[in-house]
Amino acid sequence: MATRIGIDAGGTLTKIAYWDEKKEMSFQSFPSSDFKAVKEWLETNHSLASICLTGGRAAQLKEYLSSVNEIPYIVEFDATMNGVMHQLKEEVINSEAAIIANIGTGTSIHIMQGETHSRIGGTGVGGGTLLGLGSALTGIQNYKDIIEQSILGNRSSVDILVSDIYQNNKLPLKGSLTASNFGGVALKTDDTRDSTDLLAGVQGVIGEVVATLCIQAADAHQVEDIIYIGSTLEGNELLQKIIESYTILKEKKPIFLEKHGYSGAIGALLENN
């Protein structure tokens, strides 16, 4: 039974980090729409553990866990950065300065320089976009199904590439770059286009928007490393590949931590030690 637990109550998922019986860090997650399941898991497995909360829905979860006395709170950005720094040390990744993109329901972008950090921007594009827009386009409402179906898709009939526009002309940019996300839906005739292609296109929008903003931030702050974290990357190989390839194309170094979505929970756990 864990003695200390860190919980990151996000807009979509509630992530949990705790020390197991072998003194190793373990993880659990629940939909943030189901705080009842969180409470039942805590009461069944870790009823005596001390808890530290973070995340946008921490106050709501704290109220739901009213039977638990004195639950401390750590600011989400501080918890996330603490979790990132811990993972960098654990994974032996040397990065003294980096842009950090936390891709959750939306995306928050930070600059990390040594032991200091600050938020420098963000976008409403993130996991909520994948679930909402994916559902609106295809009718698929299960998040994991959306991710799995998107892997089967092909963006060639959905997007317009630079090479599509400059046919038989000298290319001003790399031909494989996206000139217009979803522009191909209106301008390309393709009877074979299906829901998987549309979902792949949504992944493309998210990956390219996030990567572009991070690359611009890296240029502005003169750093090379971009660390991508967040629950939207969990089990989402396609999104990671899109982000990775675009970041490398723009001559920046993409870094993906092993526990993409648990940085906030890890930071809350470490605060609770």
List the helices and strands and how they pair.
Layout: E1 4-9, E2 13-19, E3 25-31, H1 35-45, E4 50-54, H2 58-64, H3 76-90, E5 97-103, E6 107-113, E7 116-123, H4 127-138, H5 143-151, E8 160-161, H6 162-165, E9 178-180, H7 183-187, H8 195-221, E10 225-229, H9 237-249, E11 253-256, H10 263-271
Parallel strand pairs: 1-4, 5-10, 10-11
Antiparallel strand pairs: 1-2, 2-3, 5-6, 6-7, 8-9
Describe this structure in words.
By secondary structure, the protein is α/β, with parallel strands linked by helices. It has helices at residues 35-45, 58-64, 76-90, 127-138, 143-151, 162-165, 183-187, 195-221, 237-249, 263-271; strands spanning 4-9, 13-19, 25-31, 50-54, 97-103, 107-113, 116-123, 160-161, 178-180, 225-229, 253-256. The strands form 3 sheets. It has a 5-stranded mixed sheet with strand order 7-6-5-10-11, with helices on both faces. Strands 3-2-1-4 form a 4-stranded mixed sheet, with helices on both faces. α3 (76-90) packs across α10 (263-271), α4 (127-138) packs antiparallel against α8 and α8 (195-221) packs across α9 (237-249). The chain is globular, with a radius of gyration of 20 Å. The two termini are 15 Å apart.
